[in-house]
Amino acid sequence: MGRIVSAIVSGVVAFTCAAHPLSAQDRGVTIGMTNWAENIAVANLWKILLAERNYQVELKSVDRVLAFSGLARGDIDLGLETWLPKTDKDVMDRFGKSIEVHDSWYKGTRQGFVVPSYVGIDSIRELSERRAEFPAAGEEAAIVGIDPGSSLMQMAEKVLDTYDLDMKLVNSSETGMMSALARAYRNRTPIVVTLWSPHWAFAEYDLKYLQDTEDDFGGSDDIHFMSRAGFGEDHPEALRWLNAWDMSDDELGSLMLTIERAGDAEAGASKWLAENRPLVDGWFGGGEAAAP
């Protein structure tokens, strides 16, 4: 869930090595990648890491629901992001019986209404009182959102009702929302956006969440990775590596920001990896050698 990099190329990266006698088909892995900054970041990182270890990796761009349904059907091998136990409960209720959910790799997510720190309010109730100060997208009073089918936007609609907040929730995209935030921040004008942590925006800008006294945004989740049924039996070493994967807010934030500044997901992930190899080596048993 930044200004999404201008080019996200789904492809297959193949390496051959005599030390790995399995066929290319046996070592093929398809990762379902949603169009969110953190998902793009970690999908491209794992594409590189698995390819280094002689896997053929395809990144398949999918929307939120297809990320889950594709795993349930077995069309996708891995999905690297589900927020549990709250945010993704609806899709897990639909598809979870056919999906294997594995260890969490990021703990303590957050989502809600966010404003630049120079804006002089701290809560959603204050926003209700000063709504006229936040025009956006041609509306007199508006909150700039993301994709209308996302869990965050569904929660945001509930928040408008709970707080009797007479503001327009503008459907956009992560790209559109971040462009609006960048313009407002540059001009130091008030803006409210729907944002979440982890996100590179918090490393780039000085932002704050508006206090949600009614807890309609659902509190904190952990991010887990998922696989199709049987993936662990087919690729036990890959599953072991992924279960050892863990990232802090600073680590993931720096990965996303490096990608954002690079303007290319795979190039940015490669740059971050070169600068953080000791951290990543720990996921592979403290420095397991990659395939040449």
List keywords for this structure.
D-Maltodextrin-Binding Protein, domain 2, six-stranded mixed beta sheet, plasmid, Glycine betaine ABC transporter substrate-binding protein, 292 residues, alpha/beta, three-stranded antiparallel beta sheet, 2 domains, globular, cell membrane
Report what the structure shows.
- The protein is of the alpha/beta class.
- It has 2 domains: 160 residues, D-Maltodextrin-Binding Protein, domain 2 (3-Layer(aba) Sandwich), CATH 3.40.190; 100 residues, Glycine betaine-binding periplasmic protein, domain 2 (D-Maltodextrin-Binding Protein, domain 2).
- The protein is 38% helix and 20% strand.
- It contains 12 helices and 11 strands.
- The strands form 3 sheets. The chain has a 6-stranded mixed β-sheet, with helices on both faces. The protein has a 3-stranded antiparallel β-sheet with strand order 9-6-10, sandwiched between helices.
- α1 crosses α10 and α1 crosses α11.
- The chain is globular, with a radius of gyration of 20 Å.
- 39% of the residues are buried.
Provide a short characterization of the protein structure:
By secondary structure, this protein is an alpha/beta fold. The chain contains 12 helices and 11 strands.
List the helices and strands and how they pair.
Layout: E1 12-13, E2 28-33, H1 37-52, E3 56-61, H2 64-73, E4 78-84, H3 89-95, E5 99-107, E6 110-116, H4 124-129, E7 142-144, H5 151-162, E8 168-170, H6 174-187, E9 193-197, H7 201-204, E10 207-209, E11 222-228, H8 231-234, H9 236-244, H10 249-262, H11 265-275, H12 277-281
Helix pairs in contact: 1-10, 1-11, 10-11
